[in-house]
Design a protein that fits this description.
This protein is 67% helix and 0% strand. The protein has one domain. The mean pLDDT is 82. By secondary structure, the protein is mostly helical. The protein contains three helices and no strands.
């Protein structure tokens, strides 16, 4: 397992109380809960950003005037960071 990086955050008192209660109820550490929540948030938002980019590119492709332009666009598109899930 790789070592994590320590960071600090400021929580509203109500959030801190709910986190404490949840950690106690689940028999998990607060760190574990915060990590799980952040991973889920990042995963969900990455999908949203990917969908927005797909929509943007779809609109660009629909504005192409002919098959030659569309083929050039498809061949020059950079999809190296796209991951399917």
């Amino acid at each position: 397992m790789t070592k994590g990086i320590t960071t600090s955050i400021r929580l509203a008192p109500e959030v801190r109380q709910q986190l404490d209660y949840l950690a106690h109820s689940l028999h998990r550490g607060k760190n574990w809960i915060v990590n799980q929540a952040l991973q889920e948030f990042i995963h969900r938002n990455n999908h949203t950003l990917l969908a927005q980019e797909a929509q943007r590119q779809s609109l660009l492709a629909s504005q192409m005037n002919n098959n030659e332009e569309l083929e050039e666009w498809e061949n020059s598109s950079d999809v190296t960071d796209w991951h399917s899930s």
